[in-house]
């Protein structure tokens, strides 16, 4: 049986650093004691699943004591890593990490690139993008970087046009052409799968799609291409912890042939190894 501590967190605003720090509820700085277990914060699917595979099958042989804590939002894992309540996290992309550090004054750094979860457009009312009606409502993740990714995905399909240079900070204000007069509903990323009954389509992060029993490679109307995609998911620590021997062991295991095979065998193209 997996010894995984689950933490269900309230939805937090990206700037609510103080709340995030207190939400972790840890009396011990797990990052400062390299003799103890390495506590890693992760969202449930696929991150915690991959970590638990490492914990159950690979960690003991490497001499790594690994503890996995599950979180259901994209803020608390970073604030917990910053304040030392956990020693590392595994859930985010480089653009999201850079944006979070900039907005919150945190000092977090990637130590390994592990996998890509293609962002996808899903619908219960349309079988292809051409079926989306005029004035259709599209749910978008509301964090800065993922919303920009979502808009770029829609633009790649010709559903909208974005102004030049919008990049990783694109918002709906950067839409220059909207031939179907699409309307947009911005939601916390974890809520987008639940919105599918209320909107015409939703752009959903790969991990939340999997949690909702969606199969990105099969069910998405449009799916991000893996080619030259900067949005790989990272193992992240607070600056200064990169040389922690426990972190080095985990980084090695997460990019091992065994983990590559586990990802390929268990996620059927919905999660792609990036190494």
Automatic annotation (TrEMBL):
<dbReference type="Pfam" id="PF03180">
    <property type="entry name" value="Lipoprotein_9"/>
</dbReference>
<feature type="signal peptide">
    <location>
        <begin position="1"/>
        <end position="23"/>
    </location>
</feature>
<keyword id="KW-0732">Signal</keyword>
<keyword id="KW-0564">Palmitate</keyword>
<comment type="similarity">
    <text>Belongs to the nlpA lipoprotein family.</text>
</comment>
<dbReference type="InterPro" id="IPR004872">
    <property type="entry name" value="Lipoprotein_NlpA"/>
</dbReference>
<protein>
    <recommendedName>
        <fullName>Lipoprotein</fullName>
    </recommendedName>
</protein>
<keyword id="KW-0449">Lipoprotein</keyword>
<keyword id="KW-0472">Membrane</keyword>
């Amino acid at each position: 049986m997996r010894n995984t501590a689950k933490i269900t967190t309230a939805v937090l605003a990206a700037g609510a650093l103080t709340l995030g720090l207190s939400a972790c509820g840890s009396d011990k700085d797990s990052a400062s004691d390299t003799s103890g277990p390495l506590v890693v914060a992760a969202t449930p699917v696929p991150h915690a699943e991959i970590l638990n595979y490492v914990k159950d099958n690979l960690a003991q042989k490497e001499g790594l004591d690994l503890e996995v804590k599950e979180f259901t939002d994209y803020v608390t894992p970073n604030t917990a890593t910053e304040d030392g309540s956990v020693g590392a996290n595994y859930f985010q992309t480089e653009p999201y990490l850079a944006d979070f550090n900039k907005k919150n004054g945190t000092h977090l750094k990637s130590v390994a690139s592990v996998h890509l979860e293609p962002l996808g457009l899903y619908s219960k009312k349309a079988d292809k993008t051409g079926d989306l009606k005029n004035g259709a409502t599209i749910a978008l993740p509301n964090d800065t970087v993922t919303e920009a990714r979502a808009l770029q995905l829609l633009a790649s399909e010709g559903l909208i046009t974005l102004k030049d240079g919008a990049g990783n900070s694109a918002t709906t204000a950067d839409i220059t052409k909207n031939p179907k007069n699409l309307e947009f509903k911005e939601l916390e990323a974890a809520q987008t799968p639940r919105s599918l009954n209320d909107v015409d389509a939703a752009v959903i992060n790969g991990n939340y799609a999997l949690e909702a029993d969606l199969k990105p490679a099969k069910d998405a109307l449009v799916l991000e291409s893996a080619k030259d995609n900067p949005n790989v998911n990272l193992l992240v620590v607070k600056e200064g912890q990169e040389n922690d021997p426990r972190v080095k062991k985990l980084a090695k295991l997460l990019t091992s042939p065994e983990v590559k095979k586990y990802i390929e065998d268990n996620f059927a193209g919905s999660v792609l190894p990036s190494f």
